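ARCHIVE RECORD
Type: protein–small molecule complex
Small molecule: arginine
Source of inputs: curated submission
Record status: active
Notes field left blank by submitter.
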Amino acid sequence: MSSDRKISSIATSSYEADPEQVHRVLLLYSGGLDTSVMLKWIQDEYEAEVVCLTVNLGQPGEDYEVIRGKAMQLGALDCHVVDAREEFAREYLAPAIRANALYGGGYPLFTALGRPLIAKLAVEHARSSGCDTVAHGCTGKGNDQVRIEATVATLAPELKVIAPVRSWQMGREEEIAYAREHGIPIKSHPTQGTEQEAPYSIDDNLWGRSSEGRWIEQLDHPPEDDVFQLVTRPEDAPETPELVELTFEKGIPVALNGERLGLVELIERTAAIGARNGVGIVDHIEDRIVGLKVRDIYEAPAAAIILPAHQELERLVCTIHQNQFKPQLDRQWAFLVYAGLWWEPLRGDLDAYMDQVNERVSGTIGLKLYKGHARVITRASANAVYDASLASFSESGGLFSQAASPGFLELWSLQSRMAWRLRNE
Ligand code: ARG
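STRUCTURE (tokenized, with ligand):
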């Protein structure tokens, strides 16, 4: 049966599938246009069976029964729906919080954190369903292909990968034509747009939502209102500020306004509070791994509250030296994760440091949210390297000798003074 396969091999790497070897494919299926067309296309072009996997990472507004039904209707052998929210929060978001993870100064990495988990689950389900190949819907211009394929190639050298969007040379119009021709329902997915208008390219999960494409590609085009589907526009947010308190234990938020919550629920509730106050919008230019620069509109209301709160608490319990050092490692951590190297041992090495520092990051931070801003206003921690009586301008009872200061600063400024003199003599 292999001789009349329509597709030919143009593999440039060891893990890309030779069409002859593709018999059963695990497809990462979202229910959107690309992966629905792909589901049919793989069956036709490769004459292969397709098993679908849909992963719930907390993206709002999905009906997983509908997605599963659609996959089965389009000929999938099976469609597994996995609720991975707990694992995502515990194994991916918790370390990100400890590392204050932001890429490029503004992107809290929700997609970058989700992809290695999705790809790890793809490997597990490919193995248990007897698949030889993993297929995904990422383009050849983005970061997500890197994150998924690096994960599959690392965890499962025996599996091959196909990425039809990179090779099938169908634009949106051709995909819609293909869908019509093959009885694939369009428009049943919220982010799919209409037949007339291309949608934004959306990706979302518990930790945030990104929009790319359309006018976002014009750098001088200010955000249009319809892009904000998660966060209230700051100008429409309530006139009265809202206060929130986050309690952390060892760097992980464990209570919201005094109520103890599991991490998933805590993030969901914090996101809702942030969203209604217009918090978490980022209009971001970023350097992709593949060399391109891209503009993203992010809505990440939970991250915009939890990360600054965590960072504030960390600053309070750490010394000046730790506070000077850790941001360098935070940045390295964020870059590795952005760049698709979740499984790189350096990430684990960095995590060991993050965990060690976060042993003492316990306490409560209060923030005031108002029309798009989240500002820390109160702090409390038993581990704070802080003594109000020392810091006070009033007398500190001999604990801090102001008389010693002139001697200290004579030595502290010694080299700078010598260098100044040499340059100005
Ligand atoms: N620029 C972000 C990143 O690289 C978001 C990507 C969103 N992915 C998507 N398929 N729309 O992580």
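CURATOR ANNOTATION: DSSP finds 14 helices and 14 strands in the chain.
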